[in-house]
């Protein structure tokens, strides 16, 4: 079996050729990726539901827009939290919170000096334990997003999609988690690339109009 190089903490940016409506122009933050599969959350799918409507105790810590995001088509009745803790070695990172349902593949060995209730995924990004008292993290978090559901791939499935050209893989930045304009994130992430991907950002929403 071919060894899988972990893409944990990277972004999957949907290519214009990706036909799945669940991931049209999606920007996915990978929270876990190994030979057993992959798990991530879509960063640019805000819903009309306010965080306070489902997790009132966390609403004051959620960044603008203060709504729940649809993390993907799997387990839409479960909530995950992804939070950035400033000053974490200037690395990108992601944290996920789970409530009421176990999220496969999210276990991480705790690091030293991490805030209680926050588990590093990559760099400054980590998973938040949504069942922990919010006041434990209030002074530590730089930003928090709440996601309903997540995106999952079985063993080798994501690798197949990469070979098929469904995704661009790029580095994440902590600000991607808390973008105040999530609907613009697809173009913004592509535009900052120092290669031909920057040109893809100009791709029209409707190719027939080009």
From TrEMBL:
One Pfam family it belongs to: DUF179
InterPro entries hit by this protein: AlgH-like
GO cellular component: cytosol
PANTHER family: UNCHARACTERIZED PROTEIN YQGE, UPF0301 PROTEIN YQGE
Similarity-based family: Belongs to the UPF0301 (AlgH) family.
Protein name (Swiss-Prot/TrEMBL): UPF0301 protein BLA24_19495
UniProt source species: Streptomyces cinnamoneus (Streptoverticillium cinnamoneum)
């Amino acid at each position: 079996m071919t060894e899988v190089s972990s893409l944990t903490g990277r972004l999957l940016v949907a290519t214009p050729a990706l036909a799945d409506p669940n991931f049209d122009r999606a920007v996915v933050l990978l929270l876990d990726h190994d030979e057993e599969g992959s798990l991530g959350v879509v960063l640019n799918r805000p819903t009309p539901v306010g965080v306070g409507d489902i997790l009132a105790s966390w609403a004051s810590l959620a960044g603008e827009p203060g709504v729940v995001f649809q993390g993907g088509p799997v387990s839409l009745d479960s909530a995950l939290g992804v939070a950035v803790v400033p000053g974490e070695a200037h690395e990108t990172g992601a944290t996920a919170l789970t409530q009421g349902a176990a999220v496969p593949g999210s276990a991480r060995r705790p690091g030293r000096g991490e805030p209680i209730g926050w588990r590093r995924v990559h760099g400054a990004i980590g998973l938040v334990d949504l069942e922990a008292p919010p006041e434990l993290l209030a002074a530590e978090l730089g930003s928090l997003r709440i996601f309903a559901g997540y995106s999952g791939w079985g063993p080798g499935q994501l690798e197949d999609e990469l070979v098929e050209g469904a995704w661009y893989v790029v580095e994440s930045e902590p600000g991607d988690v808390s973008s105040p304009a999530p609907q613009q994130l697809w173009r913004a992430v592509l535009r900052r690339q120092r290669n031909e991907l920057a040109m893809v950002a100009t791709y029209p929403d409707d190719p027939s109009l080009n």
